[in-house]
């Protein structure tokens, strides 16, 4: 399981109702159902992922988040999770607003574009960073809305989004302390527990 | 042609008939004094009786869903793509029950059956039916077969509507409900197409308010035209373009054609229409389209589908097809949204397919994969 997902689990109440936006093949939802007995629903658009998630016995809805989430009622889920999808949606701020409307709490993870490697790459080469973690070229990347840790916190403060907890994952085992101390420089992944 | 017994086929099947002497009270308030149901089964019922699956048929369907009645039968049952060994409804795991609904014309009590009170066929006097009447008669069949609870009730189109009705009428008698290319009620456009079909039948002088049945005649022209209208709505623009395009049957585009049939698509429609009119009963068609028209899942639940589905206890699989304009993906999404709001477990897939409404009968790879993946969870201990 991806490191950011193991971090999230402790914020999810056992037996609660969870909506996972962009759930992929459902690995995380399956873990949550097994270990925290949640009632989970996943949203996904990739057909192979959808089939894999169905085969895991999960409840999966084929839906494109960019088409809106108006079909979900206000405060109808205990937690809405979106792992590593914020940067890939057309209107990240609108999706965040929708998540906060649907869920009593939300958990968002995203790659931090402020990481020193990104800055170094852009600063020295003058080109959009391409790495193992961001393998796409600028013209074919699904990640159309990269942001930094500070960008995200600025948005939260503008929109009166309350940050209940934050956690950061560094690049290597040596970096966790750096990542939590100077997240905007050393966190590769940012994890936010938010509410209204 | 001997096409039977390939490894994915249930092989040769024999329909059976069961007769219930107890009257069946219908939604309209009238009673059917006795009911005969013709049905087929595929696979074996397990000792726990927990692997039974009910197939609900659509407007013009019947009990013969899979396999062949005899070795020389030209085509297998209507849903042979989905029912059989290794298929989504895998007969190595499931005991599958498929019946002809009451009101039908393939052996179950319907307008062509004898009305015991008159000694003549029911014809146009057959009582009007609602989807719940079918569900109640299907429950009798379940009792007769010793099935307390279906592992799944499955249907496409009008069959999907029966499956949903099952989840509300008998919430404790099914574990899964599979609703394919269906809707919670018909749109005005849908009602209009059904009206066209009925008017086509009524306009055939042979029909004579349904009394043709007493004269050994059939309103073949009207019924064929009704089927042609229906058929166009079951296909998509893409499907028709792929299948026929603008191809002529003979002659040239400059000169036209002396023949009455010019384009390939005309030939196809006429063939479909005439085939159908020789196999189907016009009174049944009128009866079935009306049952479809009046289907409204949530009407008696204050027109609130969320309230309706809050009575359901089963899990749901909903599937739609991208080019289906008869029951479009939007209609399926409405079902899914109501189920989510009612906090019922639901899985939904919208299958990209060119075949329109008819896609639910076709071997579309992603459709079969998704359907199969879901069926893995059916029939377990859940």
Number of helices of chain B: 10
The count of strands of chain B amounts to 14
CATH class term of chain A: Alpha Beta
Task: Give the structural class of chain B.
Answer: alpha/beta
Biggest β-sheet: strands ordered side by side in the sheet of chain A: 3-2-1-4-5-7-6
Number of domains of chain A: 1
Q: Supply the CATH class of the largest domain in chain B.
A: Alpha Beta
**Mean pLDDT of chain A, as a whole number?**
93
Low-confidence stretches of chain A: none
- Main sheet makeup of chain B: 8 strands, mixed
Major sheet attributes of chain A: 7 strands, mixed
How far apart are the termini of chain B? Answer: 43 Å
The portion of residues forming beta strands of chain A comes to 15-25%
Q: What is the CATH-assigned architecture of chain A?
A: 3-Layer(aba) Sandwich
Spatial separation of the terminal alpha carbons of chain A: 29 Å
Parts with pLDDT < 50 across at least 5 consecutive residues of chain B: none
> What is the percent of helical residues of chain A?
25-40%
Architecture overview:
- Chain A: InterPro entries: Methionine_synth_MetW (IPR010743), SAM-dependent_MTases_sf (IPR029063).
- Chain A: This is Methionine biosynthesis protein MetW.
- Chain A: It comes from Pseudohalioglobus sediminis.
- The complex is a heterodimer of chains A (196) and B (382).
- In chain A, helix 4 links the parallel strand 4 and strand 5.
- Chain A has a single domain (3-113, 146-195), classed as Rossmann fold.
- Chain A is globular.
- Chain A has eight helices and seven strands, in the order αβαβαββαβααβααβ.
- With 196 residues, chain A is an alpha/beta fold.
- Chain A has a seven-stranded mixed beta sheet, with helices on both faces.
- Chain B has 382 residues and is of the alpha/beta class.
- In chain B, helix 3 runs antiparallel to helix 4.
- In chain B, the strands form four sheets. Chain B has an eight-stranded mixed beta sheet, sandwiched between helices. Chain B has a two-stranded antiparallel ribbon with strand order 2-3.
- Chain B has two domains: 16-185 and 296-377, Alpha/Beta hydrolase fold, catalytic domain (Rossmann fold, 3-Layer(aba) Sandwich); 191-289, Rna Polymerase Sigma Factor, Chain: A, CATH 1.10.1740.
- The chains are: A alpha/beta (196), B alpha/beta (382).
- Chain A binds chain B through residues 17, 39, 41, 47, 50-51, 54-55, 57-63, 71-73, 76, and chain B through 315, 333, 336-337, 340-341, 343, 345-350, 366, 369-370, 373-374, 376-377.
